[in-house]
Recover the amino acids of this structure.
C-alpha cells in the first residue's frame, strides 16, 4: 500500500481487487501444474512402480520357496545325521564284537595247540609202553625157551612165561590202537587249528571292513553335519531376505500406486481451492477496511 495521505475505503477495495486477481491467477497456475504433475506421474512412473512391485513380489515368493526348500533340506539332513550316527554306533558295536571274536578265536587256537601238544606227549608215553611190551614179549619168549630146556622142572615156569607173553602182545596191540587214536586226534586238532585260524582271519577281515565302514560313516557324518549347518545358517538369511529390500520395494510401489489413486480421485481441485483463496483473501481485507462499514466483502462490490 502507498502512504500518500489518508487512506479511503475505495482505495482499500481497489487494492483488495488487485490482490484477489493476483491470488486467483496464482491458484489457477498451481492447479494447472498439479494437474500436469498428476498426468505425468500417472503413466511411466506408476508403470515402473507396478513393475517393481511385481518383481519384488516375485523375489519375495522365490525367497519364501527357497526358505521352504532349505527347511526341508535341513530336516532331511537332520534325519540323515541321526541315521548315520545310529549306523556308526552299530558299526562300533560290531567292531567290538568282531574284535572279541578274533580274541576268542586266538584263544581257541592256543587251546587246540595245547591239546595237540598234550596228545603228542600221550603218544610218546604210548610209544614207550609199546616198547616195554615188546621187550616183555621178548623176555617171555626167552623164558619159554629156557623152560623147555629145563624139562619137567620148568613146565610151571613155561606156563607163566606164556601168560606174560600174551599180556605183552595185548599191551602192544592196545598201544598200537592208542597210537592210532592219538594220531587221529592230532590230525583233527591240526584241522581244527587251521579252521580256527581261517575263522580268525575272516573275522579279522570283517573287523577291517567294519573299521573302513566306520571311518567312511564318520566322514559322511561330518559332511552331513556341514550340510545341516549350512542349511541352518541359510534359513535365517532367508528370513532376513523376506523383510529386506524386495518387501520394502513392494511397499514403496504400493504406496506410489495408492498416492496415484488418491490424486486421480481428487482430480483437479481448481474451483474449490480458488473459492477458498478468494474468501480467505477478501475476509482479511474486509477486517482491514473500515470506511464502508464492518463485514463488507469485496466480492459484493464487484
Amino acid at each position: 500500500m502507498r502512504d500518500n495521505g489518508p487512506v479511503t475505503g475505495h482505495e482499500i477495495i481497489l487494492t483488495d481487487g488487485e490482490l484477489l486477481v493476483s491470488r486467483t491467477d496464482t491458484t489457477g497456475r498451481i492447479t494447472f501444474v498439479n494437474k500436469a504433475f498428476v498426468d505425468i506421474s500417472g503413466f511411466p512412473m506408476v508403470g515402473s512402480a507396478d513393475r517393481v512391485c511385481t518383481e519384488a513380489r516375485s523375489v519375495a515368493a522365490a525367497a519364501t520357496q527357497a526358505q521352504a526348500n532349505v527347511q526341508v533340506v535341513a530336516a532331511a539332513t537332520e534325519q540323515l545325521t541321526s541315521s548315520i550316527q545310529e549306523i556308526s554306533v552299530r558299526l562300533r558295536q560290531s567292531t567290538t564284537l568282531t574284535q572279541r571274536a578274533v580274541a576268542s578265536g586266538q584263544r581257541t587256537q592256543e587251546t587246540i595247540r595245547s591239546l595237540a601238544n598234550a596228545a603228542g606227549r600221550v603218544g610218546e608215553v604210548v610209544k614207550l609202553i609199546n616198547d616195554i611190551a615188546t621187550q616183555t614179549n621178548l623176555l617171555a619168549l626167552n623164558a619159554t625157551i629156557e623152560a623147555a630146556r629145563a624139562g619137567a622142572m620148568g613146565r610151571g615156569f613155561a606156563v607163566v612165561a606164556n601168560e606174560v607173553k600174551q599180556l605183552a602182545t595185548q599191551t602192544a596191540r592196545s598201544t598200537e590202537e592208542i597210537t592210532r587214536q592219538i594220531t587221529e586226534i592230532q590230525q583233527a586238532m591240526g584241522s581244527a587249528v587251521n579252521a580256527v585260524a581261517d575263522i580268525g582271519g575272516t573275522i579279522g577281515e570283517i573287523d577291517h571292513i567294519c573299521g573302513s565302514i566306520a571311518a567312511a560313516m564318520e566322514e559322511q557324518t561330518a559332511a552331513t553335519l556341514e550340510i545341516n549347518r549350512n542349511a541352518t545358517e541359510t534359513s535365517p538369511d532367508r528370513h532376513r531376505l523376506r523383510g529386506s529390500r524386495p518387501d520394502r520395494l513392494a511397499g514403496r510401489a504400493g504406496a506410489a500406486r495408492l498416492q496415484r489413486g488418491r490424486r486421480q480421485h481428487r482430480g483437479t481441485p481448481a474451483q474449490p481451492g480458488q473459492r477458498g483463496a478468494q474468501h480467505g483473501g477478501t475476509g482479511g481485507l474486509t477486517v482491514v477496511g473500515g470506511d464502508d462499514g464492518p463485514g463488507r466483502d469485496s466480492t459484493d462490490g464487484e
Observations:
- Residues 6-14, 268-302 have pLDDT under 50 and may be disordered.
- The longest helix spans residues 44-150.
- The two ends are 21 Å apart (CA to CA).
